[in-house]
Amino acid sequence: MSAPSLDTVRTLQPSAVLGLGLYRASRVVPNADVVEAIDSSDEWIQQRSGIVERRFATPEESVVAMSVGAAREAIDDAGIQPGQIDVVIVATVSHLLQTPSAATMIAHELGSTGAAFDISAACAGFCHGLAIASDLVRAGSARHVLVIGVERLSDITSPTDRGTAFIFSDGAGAAVVGPAETQGIGPVVWGSDGGKYDLIRQTEDWRDVVAVGSTTMPHLVMKGAEVFRWAAFEMAKVATETLERSGVRPEDLDLFVPHQANMRITDAMARSMKLPDTVRIARDIAHQGNASAASVPLALRQLVLDGEARSGDTALLIAFGAGLSFAAQVIRIP
Ligand code: UT7
C-alpha cells in the first residue's frame, strides 16, 4: 500500500501584509546627552550616521509592553481580532530571559493562543519573520500571522562604547500577514556570512561573565567600518536581486525601506541601485536611531502615518546585521 498523501493544500493561498503598527520608546535622547561619555560631538554623529536623537525605553517599556503596543495597532489596522492570530513571531535579541520566549507572553497579553516563538537574526530579524509568515499563510499552515520586531538595545549597549553608544535604540514595529486576493509579498532573498561572526556581537557569553566574576552585563560591540563596507556594497546587490526576483523595475518602485543602520549606508545603496528620484526613501534613523529588528517596521509604519506610503504602493524592504545575516523582499502597502 502506498503512503497516504498528507497534502491537503491544493493551491497556494496568496499572502499580503494586512496591517502595520509601531511603538516608539518614549524617552527622546539628543546627541548632546550621549557625547560626553564617548568623547564625541553632535556634529560628528550627525555627519557620520545621520542620527540627531534616539529613543530609549523607560523601565515600564519592556520588550513585551512595547511589542503589545505595536501589535495592537497592527491588528487594528488589519481589521481583525487578536483571537484570529494563529502564529506570533517575535524577532529580537534583547529579550533578556533565555526561556520562555517573549512571543508566548505577548500572544497571551494580546488574547491569542496561537503558536508563538522568537527568532534571532539581529537587525535582519523582522524581514526573516515576514518571509516565514508569508510562506505559512501561502502553504495553509496559518491564516493570520503577527510579526513583531522589537528591541531594548539600551539594556545591552555600553554608554561608554564609542562605536555603538550613539547608534542603538529601543522600540517595536509589527505587521499582520494574512490571506489576500493577489500576492502582496514577493520572494525573499536572504542569506548569511558566518565568516564575519565577530563583526557585531555580545562581548562575552554568560558562562564567561560568571567565570570572571563580572558584575556588569555583557554588551554589544561592533567593528563599524567593516560592517559599513559590507552593508554599502553587498546589500545593494541583494536589494537589486530582490527587485529582479519580484519582477519590479526600479522605476516602478514607490518606496525603499532599508534597515536604519546609517544614513550614509542608505544613500550609498540608493546610489548604487540607481533608484530614481520618485522613490521615497525611509530616513527614520534621524529621530529614532538604530532599533535593530524594529527598525524596518518602525520606518515602514511611519511612512504610512506621514502619508508618504499609500495603500497599494510597492516597497522594497532590506534588513541586515549581526551574523552577519540579511533578508529582503518587496511588499505591497496595505
Ligand atoms: O545595525 C547593524 C548594522 N550596523 C551597521 O550597518 C553600522 C555600520 N557602521 C557604521 O554605521 C559606521 O561604521 C559608524 C557610524 C559606526 C562609524 O563611522 P565610521 O565613519 O565608520 O567611523 P570609523 O570607525 O571609521 O572612525 C573614523 C574616525 C576615527 O578617527 P581617525 O582615526 O580618523 O582620527 C575614529 O577614531 O572617527 C573616530 N571616531 C569617533 N569620533 C567621534 C570613531 N567613533 C567616534 C565617535 N565620536 N563616536
Describe this structure in words.
With 334 residues, this protein is an alpha/beta fold. The protein has 2 domains: 15-179, Thiolase/Chalcone synthase (Peroxisomal Thiolase, Chain A, domain 1), CATH 3.40.47.10; 189-332, 3-Layer(aba) Sandwich (Peroxisomal Thiolase, Chain A, domain 1), CATH 3.40.47. The protein contains 9 helices and 14 strands. The strands form 4 sheets. A 5-stranded mixed beta sheet has the order 1-7-6-4-5, sandwiched between helices. A 5-stranded mixed beta sheet has the order 8-14-13-11-12, sandwiched between helices. The protein has a two-stranded antiparallel sheet with strand order 2-3. Helix 3 links the parallel strand 4 (87-91) and strand 5. Helix 2 (63-78) packs across helix 3 and helix 6 (224-246) packs across helix 7. The termini are far apart. It binds oxa(dethia)-CoA. Residues 38, 40, 44, 48-49, 123, 162-163, 166, 200, 224-225, 227-228, 231, 261-262, 265, 290, 292, 321 line the site of oxa(dethia)-CoA.
